[in-house]
Structures are given as structure tokens and as C-alpha cells.
Amino acid sequence: MAHYRASESKREQFRRYLEKSGVLDAITSVLVALYEETDKPDNALDFIKIQLGAAVPDPADIEALHLELADLQQKFNLLMEENKELRNKLMQYETPPDHEAAE
Fold first, then answer.
1. Which residues of 17-38 are buried (b: 16+ CB within 10 A; e: fewer)?
2. Is the pLDDT confidence value at 1 over 70?
3. Are 37 and 59 in contact, with CB atoms under 8 Å apart?
4. Coil vs helix vs strand at 8
């Protein structure tokens, strides 16, 4: 009987540890979110990982995002250069304030 109480005490200590560290609340909220999902996910474990922020993205997704980032950076650089050119052209057509006052 003493062995049973010792293991029960360890379980209770572990439960309190999980409760104090917020693990029980986090797991409970994720399970509630899964329960409340109208369209249950095909993979419940992936759902839980995503909700807890522990999901590792697929390498193909990472590569696609890297390609998209490189493309968007290139477009950004082109637009910045175009913006600079257009500003310079605009400056040619605008008269400086000193020139207007002299007239």
C-alpha cells in the first residue's frame, strides 16, 4: 500500500507541475478547439501541433516561400528604381520656389 501512495504522490506532483506551468490549460484549450471544429481535420495530431505552434513546415513549402520572397524582392527593387526615375522626371517639370518668386 505504501508503494501505491508513493506513486500516487509522484503523479499528483507531476499534475501540479503541469498545471503550474500552463501545460494543462494549453492542452485543454487545443482539445476544445479541436472539438469545436465543424470540419474535423484529417490529421488531429497536425492540428494540435499547429495550435501549439510546434508544427514544422513542409520543406516544399519552405522552398516555395523562399522563391516567392526572392521574386517579391526583385519586384520591390524594380519598383523602387522606377519610383526614383519618376521622381527625378517630376522634379524636372516642377519649378523651384525661388524661380517662381523671381518672376
1. eeeeeeeeeeeeebeeeeeeee
2. no
3. no
4. helix
**Which grid cell is 53?**
505552434
* Residue 96 DSSP label: P
Query: Can you spell out the DSSP letters for 24-85?
Result: HHHHHHHHHHHHH-SS--S-HHHHHHHHHT-PPPPHHHHHHHHHHHHHHHHHHHHHHHHHHH
* Cell 516567392 belongs to residue: 68
pTM: 0.47
d(CA 37, CA 24): 20
82: left (phi over 0), alpha (psi -120 to 50) or beta: alpha
